Amino acid sequence: MSFLYRKYIIRHVKIIAVIGSFGKTTTTRAAATALDLSPEKYQGDNNYVFLSAGLLRIPPWARFRVQEVGICEKGQMQRNASLVRPNIVVVTSIGSEHNSSLGGLSQTRDEKAFMVRALPENGLVILNGDDLHVRKMKDYTKAKVITYGYGPSNDLQANYIKTDLSKGTHFSFEYGNQYHEISTKLLGKASIYSLMAAFIVAKELGLDLELVKKRLSELKPMRLRLELVNTKTGIKLLVDTFKSAIETVEHAMETFEALPAQRKIIILGEVEEPPESLGKIYREIGSRISKIASHMIFIGAKRVKRPLFSAAKNSGMHEDNLIFAERSITKAIEEALELIKPGDLVLIKGRSSQKLDRIAIALLGELVTCNLETCSKKLRCNSCIKINDGSPGLIIEKKAANSKKKLFDNKGKDVETIDGWFT
Question: Are 147 and 18 in the same domain?
Fold first, then answer.
C-alpha cells in the first residue's frame, strides 16, 4: 500500500532520504527544521513498518518530506529505496555500527549505496566528503553531487570556531562563493555536519537562506545525544548514551575536550561492535581519557578494564582516579555521588543497552533503584516504572543516599535542563 501511495498519490512530493551509520536522526531533524517542518516528528523510526507508516502520513499536498532510512541487514536498503523513491539523498557517514551484520565498512557502504543508486538523473546526492567511504558514492550515481565537510576539497567547507557551554557552537562556512555564519545549540564539531547537510538541502530547494540559518540556530539537541544537562548546583552533564560505537566515543571525547570546566570526569560504559581487538581499542580510549579528564568511572567487563586502566595510568592518570564499578549501575551511582562536585563537567557515555542515563537521573537528585546490567527497552529510563520501584536488592545504599542529600538539598526545585529533561 505504501509503495503505491508513494508512486501515485504523493509522486510530486520531494522526498529527502537521509542515510548513514551515524548522524542520521540529527541530520534529518536539521533538514526538517531548515525546511520549516516540525523536527519533533523525526525521532529515528526508520525501517520496517515505521518507514511505510511514515510515507503514508505524508499528505498529498505536501511539498517536502525528510525521511531517515536505516537498515539492520543485507538487502534492506534496496527494498527501502524502491519504496521511498528519493529525489535527494543525504549520506552522513559509514562506520562500524553494522560490522557484525554486514561484514565491514566496504560492505556497509555498498549496502547503503542502493539508496544513492535509486536517484534519477535529475536528483541530488549530498555527501559527507570527509568520509572516504561516503565520498566514493559519487561514483554510484549520475545525479548531481554536492560534498560538505571541513576538508578543502568539499563544495561546502566549514571552519569550526568554538563550542561554549552557555552559547553552544558557532561556526562559519563557504558555499557557492558566499560566506555564512551560524550559531547553534548543538555541541561539538561532529554536530556541524548535520547543519551543513541541512543548509545544502534548503539552498538547493530554493529557500531563503537567512531564514534557514535562523531556523537552524534554534534547533535543540536530541536527548541522550551529546545533550547538555545543567543543575543549579553547578554540575554540568554531557549525556551521550544513545549509541556507543567507537566513532561516537571519539566524537563525544572530542566535544568534551573542547568544553571548559574546573574539573572533568568521564563515566564510561562499553563500546558497541568494536571493529578491532578489544585491547587495542580500550588502550587508545584510556590514553585519550587521561589527557582530557581527571577521573574516570568505568562500568563494564573486567577483561576490558585492564587495558583501559593500564593505558590511562601509563599516560599520566593517577591510579586513585580510576574507578571500576564492574557492571553495577548502583555502584557507579554511589561512586559518582561521592566524587562529583559543583563546577564539574561530566561526560556519560556508554552502550544504549547499559542505560547509563540512570546515572544522570541520580545526579539530578532523583531516586534510582534499578540495577539491571542490560535492558532492551526503547523508552528512556526516566519514563520507566522500574527506575525507582523499590525492587528487592536494587535499592541504593544509604551511603549514596546521604551523599545525594548533601548535594541536592532542594531536589524538587534544584534541577533545570536546557530542554526540559526533568522537572
Answer: yes
| Residue 359 and residue 304 in one domain | yes
Q: Which range of residues forms the domain containing residue 316?
A: 227-407
d(CA 420, CA 229): 9
**How is residue 297 written as a grid cell?**
568511572
pTM here?
0.89
Domain with 119 in it: what CATH number? 3.40.1190.10
CA neighbours within 13 Å on the CB side: how many for 150? 9
| Cβ atoms within 10 Å of 33's Cβ, excluding its own | 24
Spell out the long-range contacts of 375-383 with Cβ–Cβ below 8 A and sequence spacing 24 or more: 380/223, 380/224, 381/355, 381/357, 382/357, 382/421, 382/422
Note the pLDDT tens digit of each residue in 268-322.
999 998 888 999 999 999 999 999 999 999 999 999 999 999 999 999 999 999 9
Q: What's the structural domain count of the chain?
A: 2
Q: CATH number of the domain that 334 lies in?
A: 3.90.190.20
At 53-66, the pLDDT tens digits run 889 999 999 999 99
Same domain for 39 and 187: yes
The Cα–Cα gap between 188 and 259 comes to: 9
Domain boundary among 217, 245, 260: 217
Give the three-state DSSP class for 337. helix
3-class SS letters over 214-272: HHHHCCCCCCCCCEEEEECCCCEEEEECCCCEHHHHHHHHHHHHHCCCCEEEEEECCCE
Instruction: Mark whether 185 and 267 lie in a shared domain.
Output: no
What pLDDT digit, counting tens, does each position of 178-233 carry? 999 999 999 989 999 999 999 999 999 999 999 999 999 999 888 889 999 987 77
Question: Are 335 and 262 in a shared domain?
Answer: yes
